[in-house]
């Protein structure tokens, strides 16, 4: 089995000599003697059979070969540093990865802001965001498959912290027959037209949620697909208000209203499925998500 000729310490010393501009400066920063650094680099060059540095005056310069090897060495020492940090994180209970279930209607910019704030403190924790719809979110919570879940109505037996109210607008294309009557007397007119709905991501999606009285329905995976269909003058759909602001402003879609009801509204909440097992990374990210809505974690989350 091949055994490395060089050590990480030798490469770190070489990096320091280059970064700080010479042996004397590096010795001062590393709190080592200049002779020990000279010896380490000389031994490294001897072991490799390549000259890495050449001294001109009182300053050390990289050779062409040294520049190539130094650049690659930085990846190696950084990877080892990250590995050691990960071991330390695991010892302290810091989670190496987190999975977040995001109800598809939750504004992604809010979650992105929270994740951006989390990144500098993340210690390398990997994040997976799973977009879910209705029962799909519930199943992930009940099966303890996620660390955090942003959902509508939480499953029975789970405590949820409210995040925000979300309005749904009833929309269609300006050329659609429904657009001729912006305010409908009741929902019977809707039943005569094609409805675009978003597929429930649950494995056992037995319960349908929302207004689904239309005999004709097309089911798609997300609201982007729904808007593409609507743009062709086909069907109507209930869409989160923040997802159709531009289309409504530009006149690409029109908003319909039913007499006595201008919109549908739901409350989005944050659930920690296993509060008693929640780790420090999950607690931090929870607090950052709540901060987007100026909420504070519940007392028992710390």
Describe it for me?
- The protein is of the alpha/beta class and 302 residues long.
- It has 9 helices and 12 strands.
- The strands form 3 sheets. Strands 3, 4, 5, 6, 7, 10, 11 and 12 form an 8-stranded mixed sheet that branches. A two-stranded antiparallel sheet has the order 1-2. Strands 8-9 form a two-stranded parallel ribbon.
- Helix 1 (8-19) crosses helix 4 (64-91).
Q: SSE layout and pairings?
A:
Blueprint: H1 8-19, H2 23-30, H3 34-48, E1 53-56, E2 59-62, H4 64-91, E3 97-103, H5 108-118, E4 126-132, H6 135-142, E5 148-151, E6 160-172, E7 183-184, E8 195-198, E9 217-220, H7 223-230, E10 236-240, H8 245-250, E11 254-258, E12 264-271, H9 280-291
Parallel strand pairs: 3-4, 3-5, 7-11, 8-9
Antiparallel strand pairs: 1-2, 5-12, 6-10, 6-11, 6-12
Helix pairs in contact: 1-2, 1-3, 1-4, 2-3, 5-9
Gyration radius, in Å: 29 Å
Output the structural class: alpha/beta
Count the E strands: 12
Number of helices: 9
Please tell me the overall pLDDT: 86
Instruction: Please indicate the percent range of residues in DSSP E strands (runs of 2 or more).
Output: 15-25%
CATH fold group of the largest domain: D-Maltodextrin-Binding Protein, domain 2
Q: Uncertain regions: pLDDT < 50 for 5+ in a row?
A: none
Look at the structure and give the CATH class of the largest domain. Answer: Alpha Beta
Give a quick account of the main beta sheet: strands, pairing sense, barrel closure. Answer: 8 strands, mixed
**Into how many domains do the coordinates divide?**
3
Span of the ends, CA to CA: 49 Å
Shape: elongated
- SSE order, one letter for each helix or strand: HHHEEHEHEHEEEEEHEHEEH
Q: What is the share of helical residues? A: 25-40%
Going by CATH, the architecture of the largest domain would be 3-Layer(aba) Sandwich
């Amino acid at each position: 089995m091949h055994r490395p000729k060089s050590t990480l310490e030798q490469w770190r010393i070489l990096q320091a000599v280059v970064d700080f501009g010479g042996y004397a400066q590096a010795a001062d920063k590393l709190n080592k003697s200049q002779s020990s650094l000279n010896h380490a680099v000389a031994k490294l060059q001897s072991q490799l059979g390549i000259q890495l540095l050449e001294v001109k005056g009182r300053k050390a310069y990289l050779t062409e070969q040294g520049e190539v090897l130094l650049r690659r060495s930085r990846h190696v020492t950084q990877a080892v540093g990250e590995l050691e940090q990960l071991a330390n994180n695991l010892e302290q209970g810091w989670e190496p990865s987190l999975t977040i279930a995001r109800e598809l209607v939750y504004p992604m910019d809010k979650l992105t802001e929270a994740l951006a704030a989390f990144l500098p403190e993340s210690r390398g924790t990997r994040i997976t965001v799973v977009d879910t719809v209705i029962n799909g979110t519930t199943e992930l919570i009940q099966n303890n498959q996620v660390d955090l879940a942003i959902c509508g109505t939480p499953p029975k037996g789970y405590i949820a912290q409210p995040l925000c109210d979300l309005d749904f607008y009833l929309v269609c294309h300006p050329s659609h027959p429904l657009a001729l009557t912006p305010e409908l007397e009741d929902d019977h007119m809707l039943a005569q037209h094609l409805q675009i709905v978003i597929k429930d991501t649950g494995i056992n999606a037995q319960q349908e949620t929302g207004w689904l009285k239309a005999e004709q329905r097309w089911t798609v995976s997300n609201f982007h697909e729904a808007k593409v269909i609507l743009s062709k003058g086909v069907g109507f759909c209930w869409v989160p208000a923040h997802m159709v602001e531009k289309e409504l402003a530009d006149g690409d879609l029109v908003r319909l209203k039913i007499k006595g009801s201008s919109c549908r509204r739901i409350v989005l909440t944050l659930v920690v499925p296993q509060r008693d097992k929640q780790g420090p990374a999950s607690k931090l990210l929870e607090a950052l998500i709540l901060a987007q809505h100026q909420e504070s974690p519940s007392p028992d989350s710390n």
